[in-house]
Structure formats: structure tokens, C-alpha cells
Design brief:
GO terms for molecular function: GDP binding; GTP binding; GTPase activity; metal ion binding. Belongs to the small GTPase superfamily. Rheb family. Keywords: Cytoplasm, Endoplasmic reticulum, Golgi apparatus, GTP-binding, Hydrolase, Lipoprotein, Magnesium, Membrane, Metal-binding, Methylation, Nucleotide-binding, Prenylation. One of its GO terms (cellular component) is cytosol. The protein is an alpha/beta fold. It has one domain: P-loop containing nucleotide triphosphate hydrolases (Rossmann fold, 3-Layer(aba) Sandwich), CATH 3.40.50. The chain is built from 4 helices and 6 strands, in the order βαβββαβαβα. A 6-stranded mixed β-sheet has the order 2-3-1-4-5-6, sandwiched between helices. Bound molecules: guanosine-5'-triphosphate.
Length: about 180
């Protein structure tokens, strides 16, 4: 099968771990320092269910509830990773606002999305429950994962699940449609 190219945008509030998830996925390492992103791109070859993909990731600058949705991320993207930190209720609220804006800008009712609750290694500081995350993802018909970029927990699954959702949207169902919850 010929290799397919898929463009994925990482979005969410500041400091939730978007860059760390990209770096962990692409380079297999965790950098314990904080350098706010303006915009960064990463490329990785991934194989899912015998299909090779060139995954182009765009790591966006953190957004907040007042940000205007950056229109450039609504065009030529196949899917989105919306990230919050399980230690920040604010980041959970912001991800809901980003999702609404995304649908609005794209003029669509459905967009392939994986909702990610990151930083699960900081479980003692958790303020967003797994149940809240799951419910939100179900309401979006999105996949849901809790991850740790630091401990490399479920990071690869984000991109595998998103590639499957994108494939399903393109009329090539490889898995049962509907909500993918792990
Ligand atoms: N404990 C823990 N810290 C994390 C994790 N992921 C990221 N961090 C830390 O959180 C801080 C912010 O991480 P970034 O990856 O820069 O976050 P970002 O969402 O890209 O931030 P912006 O560029 O401002 O949007 C850094 O100090 C990271 O080391 C994680 O899974 N666990």
C-alpha cells in the first residue's frame, strides 16, 4: 500500500505538555524544562495496521479562552490532538472552548480528535477526573487517553488512535466506528 501523509495539529492551553508529547513521540525523550512554543513541526513515519503513514505534526503555541482560533490550523489538517493537563481544571475548560471554535471555523459537526489528559504521573495533583475526560470525549465522538509525556505512557497510542479515526472518516473503516475510549 502506498504511504499516506497525514497532518495533525496539537492544540491546548499553555504548558499542558503539547511539545513534550511531540518530542516523546518523535524523539523518544522527555526534556524537563519549559520553553513556550511559537510553532514547531515534527515528522515521523508510523505503521498502523500494515499501512505506512508520514505523520506531520504541528505543535502550536498554547491558546487560552480569549484566543481567536488560528485559521491556518483549520486548513489541510486531517486530525487534531486536544491536550489538557489532569492537574489543571482551567486547561480542561480551555480545551472545550478550542473544540467549539474548531468546529465553528471548519463549519463541521465532526472532526477527528483525540482528547488527551496529560501529566498522569502527577496523580497527587489531579483536579480533572478520568470520568470527566471520558464524558467530554464521548460527547465529541472522540478518542480519549490519559498520558504522561514524562513517563512515556500511552504517548504512541494518541497518534495510532488518531490515524484510525482519520481513516474511518475517509470511509475506510478499520475499526468499529464511534467512540474509542481506552
Ligand atoms: N510531570 C510532568 N510534566 C510534564 C509532562 N509533560 C510536560 N511536562 C512539563 O510541563 C511543562 C510544559 O511542557 P510543554 O511540553 O512545554 O508544554 P506546552 O503545552 O507545549 O506549552 P506551550 O508551548 O506554552 O503551549 C514543562 O516543564 C514540561 O517538562 C508530563 O507528562 N508530566
Amino acid at each position: 500500500m502506498p504511504t499516506k501523509e497525514r497532518h495533525i495539529a496539537m492544540m491546548g492551553y499553555r504548558s499542558v505538555g503539547k511539545s513534550s508529547l511531540c518530542i516523546q513521540f518523535v524523539e523518544g525523550q522527555f526534556v524537563d524544562s519549559y520553553d513556550p512554543t511559537i510553532e514547531n513541526t515534527f515528522t515521523k513515519i508510523e505503521r498502523v495496521k500494515s499501512q505506512d503513514y508520514i505523520v506531520k505534526l504541528i505543535d502550536t503555541a498554547g491558546q487560552d479562552e480569549y484566543s481567536i482560533f488560528p485559521v491556518q490550523y483549520s486548513m489541510d489538517y486531517h486530525g487534531y490532538v486536544l491536550v489538557y493537563s489532569i492537574t489543571s481544571q482551567k486547561s480542561f475548560e480551555v480545551v472545550k472552548i478550542i473544540y467549539e471554535k474548531l468546529l465553528d471555523v471548519m463549519g463541521k459537526k465532526y472532526v477527528p480528535v483525540v482528547l488527551v489528559g496529560n501529566k498522569i504521573d502527577l496523580h497527587q495533583e489531579r483536579t480533572v477526573s478520568t470520568e470527566e475526560g471520558k464524558k467530554l470525549a464521548e460527547s465529541w465522538r472522540a478518542a480519549f487517553l490519559e498520558t504522561s509525556a514524562k513517563q512515556n505512557e500511552s504517548v504512541g497510542d494518541i497518534f495510532h488512535q488518531l490515524l484510525i479515526l482519520i481513516e474511518n472518516e475517509n470511509g475506510n473503516p478499520q475499526e468499529k466506528s464511534g467512540c474509542l475510549v481506552s
